[in-house]
Amino acid sequence: GEDVEQSLFLSVREGDSSVINCTYTDSSSTYLYWYKQEPGAGLQLLTYIFSNMDMKQDQRLTVLLNKKDKHLSLRIADTQTGDSAIYFCAERSEDNAGNMLTFGGGTRLMVKP
Amino acid sequence: EPEVTQTPSHQVTQMGQEVILRCVPISNHLYFYWYRQILGQKVEFLVSFYNNEISEKSEIFDDQFSVERPDGSNFTLKIRSTKLEDSAMYFCASGGTEYSPLHFGNGTRLTVT
After folding, report:
1. pLDDT digits (tens, 9 = 90+) for A6-37
2. Burial B68-104 (b: 16+ CB within 10 A, else e)
3. Does A104 contact B98 at a Cβ distance shorter than 8 Å?
4. C-alpha separations of B100 from A73, A113, B22, B94 in Å
5. 8 Å CB contact of A100 and B101
6. Fewest Cβ atoms closer than 10 Å to its Cβ: which of A36, A69, A89, B18?
7. How far apart are CA A102 and CA A56, in angstroms?
8. Angle at B95 between CA A85 and CA A105, to 5 degrees
9. In sequence order, what are the residues at sequence separation of 6 or more whose Cβ sits closer than 8 angstroms to the Cβ of residue B72?
10. Segments of chain B with pLDDT less than 70
11. Which of B39, B43, B86, B24 is nearest to B61 (CA)?
12. How many other C-beta atoms can be found within 10 angstroms of the C-beta atom of residue A28?
């Protein structure tokens, strides 16, 4: 079955850029998503990219997709302490009906002042 | 901004008891989902629901689980006879179309003792 992997932890200083990486195995991915989870809260949709795109920018967020290497990244510019959270990558396969998403294990981002 | 709401935020139950987790999806959404996250593990798909019937379900979603949309606003997940291994965070999600990004609620933490 499909698999999505992320590194567990990332620590950056306030004002620096953060890059969170994700790899996936499914060749039939159609959409890839980034969700943010703050302590005690749900999964907040940050951004998503369609598989025929290689980049998407949304204010401080830049998503890069390398479909050949099945590698997705989320860059957060000018990282703030409020960005500290767990970030989940998720993919949707064209082999799956509807919105059955496969999630990575999440990357905990810690932003130091 | 409209959001998905889930109640209760935390439910403690004894093994063998029935539980019902409740969700109010975003009002104009038509596609509804349940996902769960066992502590320390990945977020996993349970079931999708559209037009008053299940459209997809995972292997996890066995006969102990059922979903219902009893009225125009609520979407419920029932676990008939809870087991210790059902302890997890349960997330409800909704989407406007089959291919829309999912919007998640804050989750219900279920603890089975």
Report:
1. 999 999 999 999 999 999 998 888 899 999 99
2. ebeeeeebebebeebeeebbbbbbbbbbeeeeebbbb
3. no
4. 21, 36, 22, 9
5. no
6. A69
7. 21
8. 35
9. none
10. none
11. B86
12. 12
Q: List, in sequence order, every residue forming a beta bridge with B31; answer none if it has no partner.
A: B50, B95
pLDDT band at A100 (very low <50, low <70, confident <90, very high): confident
State the pLDDT at residue A78: 97
Residue with tokens 């099945």: A70
Q: Please say whether the beta carbons of A2 and A26 come within 8 A.
A: yes
Whether A32 contacts chain B with CB within 8 A: no
pLDDT band at residue A95 using 50, 70 and 90 as cut-offs:
confident
